[in-house]
Amino acid sequence: MAKAPKPFLLLQTREDDRTQSDEYRSTLQISGLPANQLISYRLEQQRLGKVDLRQYSGIILCGSPFTSTDPDEEKTDVQKRVEEDLHKLLDVLVAEDYPFLGACYGVGSLAIHQGAVVDRTYAEAVHAIDITFTEDGLKDPLAAGLPEVFKGFVGHKEAVNQLPDHATLLATGQDCPVQMFRIQQNLYATQFHPEMDFDGLAHRVRVYKANGYFEPHEVETIIANVANEDVSGSHQVLRNFVQHYSAGD
């Protein structure tokens, strides 16, 4: 009898319950996992503590209302605690070369942990962009079944300005040169959102309209402009991660 696959651990930081629920919904649908194979943990609600990595196939970290490059004096106690927990977790994941996929907030978390320069030089407005695999990216398992260029949703205040030498650049964008990278063999991060569908983007644009990503009066225009964008290629990155690292007990 085939062994049951281990679930994936989804780390979330959304303080709004509806946004957290919608993020879980879209990640579940896009990944193709059954509900019992994607376990949500809300970092903003409680400390992470020690994670028994043997219980999971991999860890996924979604986006966040937090911005890593905010001055420390402007960060809430919750944000500081979340960053501390993530740093401790990444110490372990990097040491173990453990399967990890960080999206948006996850790209900054992994990059800062690894000594990259993260700043606001390459901020991107909320829209769908062309993402281009590098030669290394095209050879990576997460690129399976994908063309060299595909579309994905972005919208961020900060991004990687310079990767450390030991990181592998997997994908680039016209306005933000680091769209996807890998540390060692199994830790990935994407600036774009492989876990976000149109409904999720529309929801978050409305929820975070006052968070400085755009002018509040632009909400409906932004939503209308991306309504017909095909971002299925970015979704395949998430599915490839899940399929590649699904493991039995």
UniProtKB/TrEMBL annotation:
Keyword Manganese: no
Keyword Membrane included in the entry's annotation: no
Pfam families: GATase
Glutamine amidotransferase domain span: 52-196
SUPFAM superfamilies: Class I glutamine amidotransferase-like
PROSITE patterns per UniProt: GATASE_TYPE_1
Entry-linked InterPro entries: ChyE-like, Class_I_gatase-like, GATASE
Sorted UniProt keywords: Glutamine amidotransferase
Full protein name: Glutamine amidotransferase
Species annotation: Micrococcoides hystricis
